Amino acid sequence: MVLNMRWQATACRDMASPFYGRLLDHVADDLLAGGPSADVLAGHEDDPGPSALALRLMGAVHRLVLDRRAPELATFYPSVGGTADARGSWAAFREVLVKQCAEIRPLLDTPPQTNEVGRAACLIGGLLHVTARWPGPLRLCEIGASAGLNLRADQFRLEPDGVGPAGSPVVLVDAWQGRRPPVDRPLQVVERRGCDVAPLDPCTTDGRLRLTSYVWPDQHARLERLRGALDLAARVPATVVRASARDFLRDLQLAPGTTTVVWHSITWQYLDLAERADVEARLRDLGEQAGPDARLAHLAMEPRRRTPGSDREVLVVLRIWPGGEERVLGTASAHGVPTTWE
User: Fold this and answer.
1) 160 neighbors 210 (Cβ within 8 angstroms)
2) Cα separation, 297 vs 321, whole angstroms
């Protein structure tokens, strides 16, 4: 667990959250000393790295802050108007671990529900590539959709590229670098459907609270994107069913006159090897059924290696059927912004 906390601390600093970076260093030190962090995390000693235990812990505590159940700690959290000071906040953070251990522990049992809106930068660009190949209606199907915020991605605005509706409550600024996707055809999304093993309703207080708790509190742009997406979710319907990726795709069929786009982002790590194999097999089966009037695209934003010996990158990869052609479209940060197109 200590190594997990150290790794996530470094990742947070690298992704512009010094506040979480420093707090997670304190958690790691506290674990080594047998402090209250060890009591809170007891039973999770063997959790694998991809399960994101560190982010589950930070999200659980952030939820208490957002829910006004940790007022002394809240003074250090910018998400509720506080001033980020990881060094000064540690005493208050540690006190929350001591006094609210029983409230935190149940919140560690589910994966992070980040539903990062910035990842729509990859999705929008990928959909534009699909539409350039096959103009016409798109069925957007997302596995690991959480609350389905990115199922509304075509309603987001990208500036200064001028993509998406003007006046959208979600504006992704300087989200694209490199060679831009083709933007001469509008996106026409006619179906928005996703799955998640523990879906959230973005139109409820509890759903909004849980989603916000997983945004790092010193990252103002991410918080603003999320708030805009929650506003949009109340106006643009989308369906997210409670199902595994395997079961969701098993029931999915292609539709005449449309391109079905199966999309996922930072989801693969939460599927075991057997489910990954089943997802790949089902996509191949659907691909064999694809034809000129009923197409299939698989669009993914996931950490992977281009070759067996290369470094791991967050790659945006598109596969299309008929044909099964696969292409790396670009790279992204873990939060999607910026996306660099190739």
Assistant:
1) no
2) 6
Rounded CA gap, 284 and 324, in Å? 8
Pairwise CA distance, residues 160 & 44, whole Å: 45
* Calpha distance 44→272 (Å, rounded): 18
Neighbours of 241 (CB within 10 A): 14
> What secondary structure does DSSP assign to 234-284, as a single string?
TTS--EEEE--HHHHHHH----TTEEEEEEEES-GGGS-HHHHHHHHHHHH
- What pLDDT sits at residue 171? 97
Q: Which helix (H) or strand (E) holds 203?
A: none
* Angstrom distance (rounded) from CA 196 to CA 186: 28
Block means of pLDDT (10 residues each) for the chain, 342 residues, are: 95 95 97 97 90 94 97 97 93 98 94 90 98 97 97 97 96 96 93 96 95 96 96 97 98 98 95 97 98 98 94 97 97 95 97
**What is the pTM assigned to this prediction?**
0.89
Q: In terms of DSSP H, where are the helices of 75-203?
A: 86-99, 101-104, 120-133
pLDDT in tens, 176-228: 999 999 998 899 999 999 999 999 999 999 999 999 999 999 999 999 999 99
For residue 135, how many other CB atoms are within 10 A of its CB?
A: 11
Q: Which helix (H) or strand (E) holds 140?
A: strand 138-143
Phi and psi torsions of 332, nearest 5°: -145, 165
The burial class, CB within 10 Å (0-12 / 13-18 / 19+), for 51 is: middle
Contact between 306 and 313 under an 8 Å Cβ cutoff? The reply is yes
